[in-house]
Amino acid sequence: MELAESDVQIQLSRRRPGQSALATPRDEKDQVAIQSGLEHGVTLGTPIAMLVRNQDQRPHDYSETDLYPRPSHADYTYLAKYGVKASSGGGRSSARETIGRVAAGAIAEKYLRQAHGIEIVAFTSSVGKITIPSTPSPTSASSTAPSVAPSEDDAAEDALSPEFREILSTVTRAQVDANPTRCPHAPTAEKITARIMRAKESLDSIGGTVTCVVRNVPAGLGEPVFDKFEAKLAHAMLSIPATKGFEIGSGFKGTEVPGSKHNDKFVYKEGRLRTETNWSGGIQGGITNGEDIYFRVGFKSPATISQAQSTAQYDGTAGQLAARGRHDPCVVPRAVPIVEAMAALVVMDMLMIQNARNGAVSLLPPVTTLPKTMVLPKSNGR
Amino acid sequence: MELAESDVQIQLSRRRPGQSALATPRDEKDQVAIQSGLEHGVTLGTPIAMLVRNQDQRPHDYSETDLYPRPSHADYTYLAKYGVKASSGGGRSSARETIGRVAAGAIAEKYLRQAHGIEIVAFTSSVGKITIPSTPSPTSASSTAPSVAPSEDDAAEDALSPEFREILSTVTRAQVDANPTRCPHAPTAEKITARIMRAKESLDSIGGTVTCVVRNVPAGLGEPVFDKFEAKLAHAMLSIPATKGFEIGSGFKGTEVPGSKHNDKFVYKEGRLRTETNWSGGIQGGITNGEDIYFRVGFKSPATISQAQSTAQYDGTAGQLAARGRHDPCVVPRAVPIVEAMAALVVMDMLMIQNARNGAVSLLPPVTTLPKTMVLPKSNGR
Amino acid sequence: MELAESDVQIQLSRRRPGQSALATPRDEKDQVAIQSGLEHGVTLGTPIAMLVRNQDQRPHDYSETDLYPRPSHADYTYLAKYGVKASSGGGRSSARETIGRVAAGAIAEKYLRQAHGIEIVAFTSSVGKITIPSTPSPTSASSTAPSVAPSEDDAAEDALSPEFREILSTVTRAQVDANPTRCPHAPTAEKITARIMRAKESLDSIGGTVTCVVRNVPAGLGEPVFDKFEAKLAHAMLSIPATKGFEIGSGFKGTEVPGSKHNDKFVYKEGRLRTETNWSGGIQGGITNGEDIYFRVGFKSPATISQAQSTAQYDGTAGQLAARGRHDPCVVPRAVPIVEAMAALVVMDMLMIQNARNGAVSLLPPVTTLPKTMVLPKSNGR
Amino acid sequence: MELAESDVQIQLSRRRPGQSALATPRDEKDQVAIQSGLEHGVTLGTPIAMLVRNQDQRPHDYSETDLYPRPSHADYTYLAKYGVKASSGGGRSSARETIGRVAAGAIAEKYLRQAHGIEIVAFTSSVGKITIPSTPSPTSASSTAPSVAPSEDDAAEDALSPEFREILSTVTRAQVDANPTRCPHAPTAEKITARIMRAKESLDSIGGTVTCVVRNVPAGLGEPVFDKFEAKLAHAMLSIPATKGFEIGSGFKGTEVPGSKHNDKFVYKEGRLRTETNWSGGIQGGITNGEDIYFRVGFKSPATISQAQSTAQYDGTAGQLAARGRHDPCVVPRAVPIVEAMAALVVMDMLMIQNARNGAVSLLPPVTTLPKTMVLPKSNGR
């Protein structure tokens, strides 16, 4: 495959700190240099080593953590796990490790785009309580459908508003990047900006959600039982630092919708079976059906805040800890390329597994003894 | 380890159909027989084979699916994946495969209880829009905290109400099983019963959520980066049929809470560091901290409903499909032991990995050259 | 894939005890019944469960092992590993577990034959000191090349005699099965028969070697570094009970041959690069080159013998143990289908991995920027 | 664990080229620098990155391979696998990759020594036809036991001569390194030196074998069925470049010995069950029994030789290739630390797996209901 450092750099630059006033002032260039696996701009099949040097490290920023396990950080749990800890910084629990994910994901993504036309676009769907209208978000129901009297009987027909569906179907990375919040819905982006600035000014932090859509994934990816496509996605997303939740398709909101409304009926169009609606989020029974895959990931408010916190030291002594490091008041905008990267890696993995199966089947003599109800009709374009 | 079929049967019986009027009338006895791995009631270290025979199968119930891929089922995606499908039933995409999970989980659970005093209790936390007060549920905010004027600035202080926290800390399986809904909050259970009966009567179905708490897990479980404890949990939960979402600790609701309120400050009690609050859900940086682990799993409304649905046949012909099989109007109560089982398997896996590490460390000569800030103080009881 | 029980039975019947006077009189029918994964004689992509019932078990045969760990058996090591042991028999350390390998291998083999024309043929190449002439066997050198004065300087030009090469290139299973010894070289088969009968009469046992050839394997299978094709083969073969050694291609004998004679020069024939000789055994740098893969596996003399042995009891008491079970004086003839099965499984695994890669590459746009010395010339037929 | 670069360097220096006149004149310093995972000389539990820079690379040495796939190298097979190849050198198929194995193995080895007193010593046991007396080697029988009339009936009682057993029991790395051949048997070492020098002078190469002993491994390591200890060892050894064979314990020679002589009878000494002989090589039924593990690995003659070879170019044109690179006439002495490293990694892996199990068992309440014949007697010291 043709590959250049620029294919990777573009996503690293979207992840790096210091992109806007909304993010940490640490100005890490995060320039990638490919060390191996390429010649003449073509991958050789050998491992691709990539090097990103840390150019703005200030280890003394972390000195206070000699005494304190930072609240809601991994300092204490790593110490409990290993019995020993590095003298500074969070090591592998620092979100800085996500550079590797983004770099690898960018390569996977290039392949998926070239070979299958797959598009992966993530965006900020909420920050704090501010959310794109009708995102399947905890508090959206009341604010976006005020005229519908909420009742226990109602299906949440508005879980995916037409406005939100439109974003899912059409949003591009250019649209996402048009605003530093990476929220492609302008009125919401404006409110999110204010919310993040307020967190910053109050030496506090705020969380939010990233929604991601993956288009043009072939039907048939994902494995039965344990490695369902959504299970692999959930694993990948919850492995990103600071994540608290994952929803596929209609998600938690969908649990409120009766089956008669939630079911995605089949229709025949464009030479194959499609679904009329897509509450399933492109996955049924753990296996992709060719419709758009979309999911939402929750990120907690960053644990590092500059205001003093009353908390105990490692030895149990009570005290006050105030972080000196430069940190983000909100990680959500920078999390967007990380979510995209992990999504790309999951699609790539599941595709490779299915490739192995498809390649094996393609060499067998045709089977002619089966009832026609057991095989895919010829009228289906797949 | 001592093991009897009754250790397994108890959980299988909680999972089986036909337990109450709320569930499918299929009356599967689901009696387990252990085939290998035991002698004199003690495990031998060899694989434990367990057999559960299907005693009430009616394959003809599924005959209509010869022509129709059932909406929001896996019929179509399995066919797209394999190019061929079984002539009846859903095969591995049927939730009947969860019998194996529950059986395996029951053994893991017995070990965890005996060796570590670990308790795993799951319960129905919502059905449709009916939810235990202050569950971190989509719609709970407005209904349960009416006196607090909702505003974008507010932290969701009520995400875990005292009432809900109390349930998490103390709920037992006996309390859960006291009501067929498996909801341990009596007023909510009553409403849930009505909601499920209504779904049943209208030949429809309804979804909901299961919340699970795991107590007494040692600190230090979970692996850095990709196999964080919550990532493995999310993988396990999203592999259960019909799941749509996963939240750990404060979950999506927690994304709305500023860091200053969301951080779990450390306090010294009972001879070790504990956290004052537990928004983290017992996991920090992907590794357990010894506090209660709790999480929530969303289950969609069952796709199989008895009312007719307009949907296309495999060959594209439009038509009407009405299910004849006997199915649950709501799977949530029966999902409770499945969630417990998968939780037990994850804890067991992560424990085995950490055992390997701890066993290795225990044989090394003591290291004396490290600054004391790099090692766990003796005052910590772990 | 079309599949019938007879596809599996044929190999199980070659493995089963009681086939001839050379083997154990235990007469196990070893009839396979396929339980799942098939309809109308076609595999569905779902797991294929196969059941083989034990029809001639006599557990009391093993009763003496209550007191004695059998010498060179796994009784003691399993007890050391698990701290507990089954009250009778060897459990998973019994070679009876190889039924599962043979059954699975038969399915893999059918696929490989249909899809790639791959042929796998194993045969008895030696028993005790009796060996097919010029097998690369410990003692063959002197007996088969008497006129060549052995000297330290000589290359072992005779390591693969023309006679032996001919067998490798052409031998069929029918030829192998023509003699109960499964040695396709008639004069050697006769001597082997006598050797085994002598072991049987003296209540003793004897070992030997199985040589296996795999023809028509595509070039490009095997993974760099750790999962080289021969490493996976060695792993598979040494996992068969009673194996003591593995050689690929020229093997240990090849270590005596200077590079100038051992190197397989390339020649162009049949539209692609072939090698003139095949000391490499079809694998170079861990990856197949399309030539015949051949290897040899050593099986020790069965540990169970009917003569009394002076050995200690579990509690340390010295004593005399004489086996009462019915056992083979030589396992080599029955090991032939087991070696074939494990070979088939390794080829299948490596093929699936390469399929995943090939499938991925096939969808990329052609790369045009590479110097022609970096790509496979069109004149190569692969 | 305490760890210093010197712990690793010592083995890298034993592997590096240019150590003596017997090896390639490439003078690679192979200095290791530890990049991560350590502070104050103690491992932190985080990944240990080690960097070894190539200081004497001459890529133009390889230029002729632009046209020729080198015979018995991986040039052709890598090209067949990936469809593209690096413009120079062998990439991952170069034995230079074994630096990583040796570095990792040195760390594992330090742990095994500290925690279990495990000793791993490998040595050159043969080069060409020259072998330490009574190594279980192809040609040793006739030359070392001339007075015994060889017959088909004879057991190979001399397979492990007292002389060879003594070496296995006592040999140290200092003794191994006393001679550049790494053969600890002085008369053999002298002949081996001459043999290698002759290969060098004739622009040719020669192979040989490495024997390795691992002492003090706890009983109980290795997994039933597929991951038997010897299967993992065989996998590891055959993954080393240029290997052709693997034998455990009595190996191929042992296949000639009747069971009555080959069985390792149990005796009670030093408070536990030991075996009188050790033909099993410390492993029974795939699981270690606490006796010395010993095995032999065959290395082919290096494929790179300086004399011209008639062989085809990539495009099929016949031609003459003479290597210009600097290469070893015999890799066996330098392979010694590689074999040790891979052995250490296998022991470490199997130990970690058993640790997980032992740790789990240790927390269970004692089982009292089993017949005493099913548990390890107290009189056994394990």
From TrEMBL, chains A, B, C, D:
Lipoprotein is among the record's keywords: no
Pfam families per the UniProt record, alphabetical: Chorismate_synt
Compositionally skewed regions (Low complexity) per UniProt: 134-150
Keywords associated with the record: Amino-acid biosynthesis, Aromatic amino acid biosynthesis, Lyase
Gene Ontology CC: cytosol
Record EC number: 4.2.3.5
Keyword presence, Amino-acid biosynthesis: yes
GO biological process: amino acid biosynthetic process; aromatic amino acid family biosynthetic process; chorismate biosynthetic process
Residue segments, region Disordered: 1-29, 134-158
Pathway the protein acts in: Metabolic intermediate biosynthesis; chorismate biosynthesis; chorismate from D-erythrose 4-phosphate and phosphoenolpyruvate: step 7/7
GO function term, MF aspect, one: FMN binding
Family designation: Belongs to the chorismate synthase family.
PANTHER family: CHORISMATE SYNTHASE
Protein name as catalogued: chorismate synthase
Organism of provenance: Calocera cornea HHB12733
